[in-house]
Amino acid sequence: MRRRFLTRQRTLRPGLPLAPDGYGFAVQTWNGHAMAFLRLLAILAALIAGLQPALAVRIADADLSSHVVALGVGGFDAAEKAIADLAATGDDRVPTILDRLGNGELMVRKADGAVFAVEKAGLDFRLTDLVTGVGAGLAPKAAVEKIKVNNRIRRAIASAVGALTLMSPDPSVRRAAAEAVMKSADVAAIPVLDQAIAAETVADIRSAMLAARATALLASDAPEADKVASIAAIADLGSRDALGFLSGYTSAEGAVGAAARKAAAVIESRLMLWDVGQNLWYGLSLGSVLLLAAIGLAITFGVMGVINMAHGEMVMIGAYATFTAQEAIRSSWPELFDYSLLIALPVAFLTAALAGILIERLVIRWLYGRPLETLLATWGVSLMLQQAVRSLYGANNREVGNPAWMSGAFAVGDIQVTWTRLWIILFALAVFFALIGVLKRTRLGLEMRAVTQNRQMAAAVGIRTPLVDALTFGLGSGIAGLAGVALSQIDNVSPNLGRGYIIDSFMVVVFGGVGNLWGTLVGALTLGVANKMLEPYAGAVLGKIILLVAIILFIQKRPRGLFALKGRAVEA
Q1: Does 90 score more than 80 pLDDT?
Q2: What does the alpha-carbon distance between residue 521 and residue 92 come to, in Å, rounded to a whole number?
Q3: In CATH terms, is domain 275-571 a member of 1.10.3470?
Q4: pTM of this prediction exceeds 0.70
């Protein structure tokens, strides 16, 4: 049996000596399998290396060193050529070298012309070899000379680094590299772009690379037919960068100029539609802010008939309550910072609601039926609240931080959507429908609706209208405090925060219909969108004046607004 095994083993491995015993045979067989496994690993490694992007290529240290030395020889023309030569090597160490050159960290040692990365070490400089990363000792200031860099060299560096990073495994890096090459229109980047385009699998990044190649081709001495084709590739990108690049060729004569003008017109039409969408998004965002600021006013104005000029200060109180809660969390429980706004919501609501109830009990309850005196009294209260906040927090703006889940933005086509604005819109709608639920499904809501429709009859059937007034004023003020939480994320938290929203809030309430929440929703969104649509053409100030005049004319035709309340007292 042993001889059969040995014979088979000799047959499988010619030239392998026979093992003296069974253990030796097992060891030699295992070694044979291990060698086969290592050969397989070597083959796989070679395949993986062949699939690696060009960025992972390395040339000999001596060759790279010769290119580095060329950076310190001659003037700016020679330096630009040396940068191009370095980029052409494709070595993965080149981006770091060029980045240090752009940052002014490279110096030439006068004794032998060698180029090093330097950092200050007392009165001397510590030298580091750019190729190997090995320290080269210290050198006095007189022994080295800094390589000068101007804007022309910086542009060459940006173009070279962009071309080198076109083959990065990170898609965001490749996209940024393509955009950098497109802006620089570097003709030398065309060969690298061709390689990157052939290897690219992501459609939008490939389009960006094709547009970058087209811009480089336009800047070259290519035939006119190729330049016209490249203009079509740039037009397919359809971005503002593409339009800006084509604007340099719209005045050209011949087929190139005609193609550039046609492509620019197509891009302008496309961007105009996206601008309308962007303004619509801005309008919805503004409308959600107006809804939060006005919805509480709609309740107090509709139920009590009180013109509360201190409503803006309830928004301010909510914002400062948010700031105070967040500062407490930062100092005591920093790990809860991302939840600080959620924690601040009940704090801001209760703080503003209690302030509203106090104002109603101490001031407004004595002035029912006297609208002018109520307006003046609440205006005085607003001034007192502003001064109180200045005394407690100071007159300077306060910053309320954004949690991680509210930071950043994303794009929908060419429309930029910030997470902060999106969350505020969703929050405003949540508050609106929660308030609808309170009014429709709770006893307080039933009594509020009864008092709104006929106060005398509601009192006659046993509803305590003074208590309903106080709770209604507190509810409206609490919702204004929630608006302050939202506004703290997009506006400066200052004593004057609410003043900028009080007039717009009254416009929303009057336009939508006094005391009607659905009218407030429609009015806020309508005024927000109309305001942002008018701004690009009429400007911010004139646009608001046009809206104000339009609302005045509308009220002349419909004094009760879009959605008028119904009830005997109201109709009387």
Answers
A1: no
A2: 57
A3: yes
A4: no
